[in-house]
Amino acid sequence: MDVSQEKKLKNSQLLGYGSYTFFAALGALTWSFRNMYYALIGMNMALLSTVGLAVGVFDLTVTTMVGGIIEKVRLNIGGGGKYRPWLFIFMFVITFGVIITYTDFIPGNEVMHFITAFIGLLCVAISMSFIASAQFGIVPLLAGASAVDRTRITTWNYRIQTCTSIITSLSAAFLLTWFGTKFKPPLNYTVMSCCFAGFYIVGATMLRRVAKPYDLPVDKSSSSGPAAPEVKVSDMVKAVTTNSQLLVYLSANMLNTIGVMINMNMIIYFWQLIIPYTHGISPADSFPGLYTIAQTTTTVASFLFSMVGPELGKKIGKRRAIWIGMLGASVSAVLNCFFGAGFWALFVGINMIMTFSNSLYTGFGINYALDCGEYGLWKTGQDHRLVIMSMTNLPMKIAAVLGGLVMYLLAAIGFDSLAVQAASAQGGIPAFVDDVFVRNFMLLLMGIPAVCRLCASMLMRFAYKITDEDARMYAAENQARREAAAS
User: Fold this and answer.
1) Are residues 161 and 25 in contact, defined by beta-carbon separation less than 8 angstroms?
2) pTM score, two decimals?
3) Which of 9, 52, 291, 333 has the highest Cβ tally under 10 A?
4) Which of 36, 31, 41, 22 is nearest to 400 (CA)?
5) Is 20 helix (H, G, I), strand (E, B) or coil?
6) Are 423 and 416 in contact (CB under 8 A)?
């Protein structure tokens, strides 16, 4: 049997790999309420956008170096190995970052708000880069050259992610409300973040355990165990800049993720401001009530689609699945841009188009970048797969910066966080919310993402060339070369 078609991993190993995704999602349970928290403490919108921009620029620099750092540096803490030490270090850093982000040390002090937001968001951003790169690198360690097992890992991980989303969507808003009955805002955010941030530690610990038999520490007293390779920075830069297929994928991924980031930054205001205005209801009826119904409906559908979409994606192939999926998400955004604000259930229904479209390719996960890495290794003979996979964090970081700029645009169309804070205290809607604001808001929330996703779809349709057959061939030949060199 072709090595690329072997199926060797046990279900327990697949669950072990996905454990970090499960617990990290619980740890990030409060993350969707970040902008609500900043509005609650009265943080100026322009200042918040500036914090995001400063963090993003600093984080972009770090992200470009993460793959090279992991390749070149071998640590013996946290059990040693290539990836496990970084999981060990940054599971604590990300926990600290989440907690400090939601801690208002000096109420009303803008300088302290800037400092805590910058430190907290930076800790989280850098930690996510290192943890994600380690998690990506563990995939070929576990699966070897088996395209079947590589896809099984990422598909299971995707399904675990959607399953966890059901739990968080059912509980997040009500948990925040419950904590608000026990602790005076914004202390309720702080306490909630302390309770849930520890889940990052649990998830990373379980991922380190499943990787232990494969991610061996360096034994400096003998020749056994993997040694840190001599990796030149110039070679790593060349591995990325000369890999045409990687550059296409990164560009498309960045455009698609800009749409995701814009939605993430603004969606809470859709339920907090837009729906109460267009439906003539109080904000309390919309959030957490309608918000929770919508989120739960969407996440249940995501889980159901995760059982069907990836299987359909396998039939039509990774390359076709991604451009069709991005195109479907663009169509969904266009429809919601013009019709979604008028009726909340219609917004949720139209959103299902995007949810199903995403399920076609999301199950392949890091395999797109891994295929680009195998292509680069096959073409040049130099193994920079981890560096290439770590570059998939770069589009997310760039998108986070560019997506964060939408907060400036939100302020430009009339959004005022102080007015939101005052209206929230009275249980009403701010005066700046009117028909013009709603129309402009929907253009920002859905119009810009629709254009970004359409451009991403066209890039993958016409410029990305790696088929499933190509990917299997690259992986098999690279594996054969390594085995021949070792013998």
Assistant:
1) yes
2) 0.78
3) 333
4) 31
5) helix
6) no
